[in-house]
Fold these 3 entries.
Entry 1:
Amino acid sequence: MLDSSWLWIVFTLIAAAAQTARNATQRELTATLGTVGATHVRFLFGFPFSAIFLLIVMLATGAALPVPTLSYWPWLALGAFGQIAATALMLAAMNDRSFVVIYAYIKTEPVPVALFGLVFLGDKLTPAMAVAIAVATVGVVLMGLKPGTKTDVRATLLGIAAGAMFGLSAVSYRGAILNLELPNYVVAATFTLAVGLAVQAGALTIYLWLRDPGVLGAIVRAWRPSLFAGFLGALASQFWFLAFAVAAVASVRTLALVEVLFAQGVSRFVFKQATTPRELLGIVLIVIGVVLLIWTQ
């Protein structure tokens, strides 16, 4: 196996780039499928690709398919359903406030992630890492919260809760990967991704079939763009899970804030939208936090 002491950085950057592309694709699907339908696409159409990734990894490594112990499944379930719950909280918050504002609240995720990782997995949090997380998180919030914006306590709490649940999900998935205790972390990460997406796809399919079966029909009819969004989602998740397998989730999710910079770059260079001084300060803080994080590693 390759030295993983620095590979988590590469995995995270690839995952963040793929997720930015997936978000752009998924945003277009929201108009035709609705928010829940567009969210389900990432699981339903992502699962086949995760299964293909698993097959490729098994053939390339010659490893046997993992046989999880009973203690694996609570970690997996908490990761899978925690992510669904986080998405529901995020959508509820966005009903009250703009996407940009809620996105800023959600991206406070590295803070609870650091706490969850320490409590549940014993992941170390050095003072330098804590400073890096704080600086980068302030940068994200600064970019998202515009002066004069009204404060909505309910939306704020929902957004922060969504970030915390996304963090709990990520820590739980790392717990599941580590629980397999496999010598090859690529096999452990890829297997856990495939199983997690299978659980999520099955659960949301049943939910929509009972609550709004028309959405399932709309998803099937929009299979072409949904397939691409599913691929990008599975690709992003594959590299997130690889990063979780070899590094503390707090480090991964803090470095993942570069996703905000990617989105800002798209806004600036593709849509020709100017960057304000406040946004520029936020970018500088994110960069400082990320550089400090990498340096401490």
Entry 2:
Amino acid sequence: MKPGCLKKKVGIAILSGCIGLSLNVLLQPVPVAQAVDIFSVLGTAIQGAAAYKQTDKVIKYYNNTEEGRTELFYQLQEKYGVSSNAYRKQQLDEMIPRLEKGIAVSDPTVHDQPYYYFINRQKTFNASCGMGHVISVNEGLYSLTENQDEVAVVLAHEMAHGQKDHVASSIRKKMNVAIGAGMLGSAVGGSLLSNLALNLAVNQIDKVAITKKDEWEADNLAFQYIIDSGYNPGATAALWQRVEEKYGKSKNSFAGEIFSPSDHPTHQQRRENYVKKLYEYSGNHVTAEAGVVKVNGKSFVKPATAEGMSSAERSYFILGNLAAAYKKGHARQKAHVSGSTVLLGEQPIIKCASGDPSASELADLLNRIK
């Protein structure tokens, strides 16, 4: 078999796994027909160390070369379609470079491989980052949230997976298991046993390929990326509050278990992780509990439902503003009012809506407890 032909077949096998990756980059089980194809290519065409070497070469092609990244990008577009929504495309054109600059504060290697991205036509809530820093955002993401800060959290999470090569690592594990299973089947000479062993091995790896540790790493990196990109850090917790309100507390209730599979953090765990981070970011001054924003242990405000958000979701944006005020030193200044907005120094804290206490009341209270 010619090397070019082999590369193409192995590449397609890897690509099929990559396309199935979701927001937490979970590899979905490989159908029997596909697994048999992997066996036939890897188990019969190449053996032993040569197979592992070839797999590594193909992964590097899609993950590290412009040719491979471009090929993957266009195949993803062909498979999922490209959204015609010009407004959202323009928004993404502004957000991705902004996030890349934020990422560069802690990881300058992002400049070596800028992200490819597009909005696809899929209506389910999802986004994915495949190999080669290729991001695909579902139109359905915007059915959950139109808030730019929350969309940025989704993108930052995916870009964290990209920066740490979680996808390439998971696919490498998947392919190596396929090689091992294929070689075993060839040794015993039983085609039925070979197919069964291959499918069981590949499916098992699929379920644990992106570990809980990787998910936490992506979440934690996303928090820093959001801060360094100038978005409201409270959006990190607010997004998970919105997810819980829309899809329920059970992670299994999420669309197809794609976003939060059984071995990954729950919505509540992710939200509370971010609340803890916001508390630490503020110098241990501010937090939020049951929708109540607290400053130095004292209740500040339980905001009304407004701006398309529940009281609890909105509380996390206020928390994010307060945390930033303390981090940047604005909290040393006196709280004041501009129109319906309460500010600490130059940092807006809350824009009062119907059902909230007045801006002057909140400014006075904040000055007493901050």
Entry 3:
Amino acid sequence: MVFIIEFILTFLRGMQIFLILGTILPMFLPADSTLKIGLVRIIEPLLRPFRKVIKPISGFDFSPLVLYLLIRGVESLIRRFLLPLAL
């Protein structure tokens, strides 16, 4: 049981890293960069539902921030409630 919870927590941490990289790196990479295209393919399906609900405000897209906070919240809940039960 602990292994499964640790795997989920590691997966969530990886999603956070991909989200940060997928949000910041495209500003600095050229449009045809393979890294940029790969990150967009990973991150865009996760952000699409949030972008439907949260429209850009004055040109700023807050959907990555909302997704990041949601992932952090889920991770916190797992650490607080499920991990102590599994130990």
